[in-house]
Design a protein that fits this description.
Number of strands: 16
Number of helices: 15
Length: 462
């Protein structure tokens, strides 16, 4: 770990050295571009998986890890641009609004607001529904602006946790940016985490005191919050039906705003995102199962952040499968030499266990269910995704939800046969279609059913 200052360096060794980071910052042209000041940066190098030491040789320029750009440099750029805006232990800015509930140490977790040190319309900073089409640099840029205030609390006792949690809840239920003043116990730690598994995030510190300006609550969310006889799942479904954005529902869900009075608890942010996606898509599926089946094969497509999505929609009763292929040099296959594939599926009766593929499974499921609900049809759906090296760092499961939503907004390509639809998918992917077919339970089922139908038809004609 190194403390960096302009002109001098004080070194405290706590792991591997990364002198190349220091050399980059000392380069006059790079330092000018990064707006580097006399403030300090802590660089933690332990656990670097990109190339197992290749970072030292590469220095962000040779792309030896296989990525098309250096994710460390993207993060470094954002961190050094925000550093001059952070002075001392007082933070004053407009929260989007945004809150974060951690999961480490559960049921005792750190929760609190996310506050940028600026007064402007920051609503975009925590509204993934508006991020589609933005570059990774833009997303990392405004997400890195959010300073995380932390307050330790038990997930079940948050309502007795005092003023800080009361104010945090006010933020979570607000419909627009709210002025927030944070008095922190220490200066926010400006960590540049050199770890391929960590998503971009801003600096953090424990909260000493907190003041919140006038917050205008979302009236629909407020109704569910004050109704202590309404179950959490029912509140989530009701708000969605009334047009409340999924992000706002997830935020309120995480802060324990829904459910029967005696059952309310805070939910770590990561879990709340998947829980809401799961609840909403399950409700839609129950309705979708009552609709007639589609009578054609369709392919929907979307491209974003070097992720390629092909959504295959086939005649048949509701069933769903999500498949992902990660090229070497991508986020979850950083040092591999071959493509890694993940997949999971559910039949007409659904599933009772958590999908191995993770939150992406439920995010994509919600997106495809939204289309089928609009059309009042049911179908067998397979979501296929190729992640290429241009996807240099994880930005969250919202990217999957919005990518698939974008696909489902486009006019579908329609085909009379499964073979024609698969040929289209094959033309858009680099991985041979046979590899996808070998892994896919639902595509194999459809091909098998087709053969049985053709055989019976042939037998009857004879």
């Amino acid at each position: 770990m190194k403390r960096l200052t302009e002109g001098t360096r004080e070194t405290r060794m706590t792991g591997k050295e990364n002198l190349w980071i220091l050399q980059l910052i000392d380069n006059p042209s790079i330092a000018a571009d990064l707006n580097y000041s006399t403030d300090y940066l802590l660089a933690k190098a332990s656990g670097v998986a990109w190339g197992k030491g290749l970072c030292v040789v590469c220095k962000g320029s040779k792309f030896l890890c296989g990525k098309t750009r250096c994710p460390l440099m993207v993060r470094l750029n954002s961190y050094l641009r925000i550093m001059p805006l952070i002075e001392g232990t007082d933070i004053d800015g407009a929260s989007p609004p945004s809150v974060f509930v951690g999961r480490i140490g559960y049921p005792y977790v750190y929760a609190g607001p996310l506050v940028p040190p600026v007064h402007e319309d920051t609503s975009l900073f925590d509204m993934p529904e508006l991020w589609f089409g933005k570059s990774i640099d833009e997303i990392v840029g405004f997400r890195s602006m959010l300073i995380r205030g932390k307050h330790r609390v038990h997930v079940r006792n948050f309502e007795e946790a005092g003023k800080i949690m009361d104010k945090t809840r006010e933020l979570a239920l607000s419909i627009g940016p709210v002025d927030v003043e944070l008095a922190l116990k220490n200066r926010p730690r400006r960590y540049l985490i050199l770890d391929d598994e960590v998503q971009p995030f801003g600096p953090s510190a424990s909260i000493q005191d907190m003041r919140v300006g006038t917050a205008r609550w979302d009236h629909q969310i407020e109704k569910c919050y004050v109704d202590t006889d309404l179950k959490a799942a029912e509140a989530v479904a009701t708000l969605y039906e009334r047009g409340v954005l999924v992000t706002r529902i997830q935020r309120a869900f995480s802060i324990g705003a829904f459910g029967l009075k005696q059952n309310r608890r805070m939910v770590p942010t990561r879990w709340s995102i998947t829980a809401v996606d799961s609840i909403l898509s399950k409700n839609l599926i129950e309705q979708i199962k009552t609709y007639p089946e589609i009578n054609e094969y369709r392919v929907y497509e979307s491209r974003y952040l070097d992720n390629r999505f092909e959504v295959l929609v086939m005649p048949g009763p509701w069933s769903y499968e999500a498949m992902e292929a990660w090229y070497p040099g991508t986020v979850w296959n950083p040092s591999g030499t071959s493509i890694v594939m993940f997949f999971d599926w559910e039949g007409h009766e659904g599933r009772t266990t958590y999908a191995d593929i993770g939150g992406c499974y439920y995010a994509a499921r919600l997106a495809v269910c939204e289309l089928l609900q609009r059309e009042r049809r049911q179908a067998t759906v397979v979501v296929l995704r190729e992640a290429h090296p241009g996807y240099i760092m994880p930005v969250g499961v919202w990217q999957v939800r919005e990518n698939v939503r974008n696909a489902m907004r486009q006019a579908p390509l329609k085909y009379n046969t499964l073979e024609e639809a698969l040929a289209r998918v094959a033309s858009q992917f680099q991985i041979p279609i046979q590899q996808w077919m070998n892994k896919s339970q639902l595509i194999r089922n459809a091909l098998y059913q087709k053969k049985i139908t053709e055989f019976l038809s042939y037998t009857m004609k004879k």
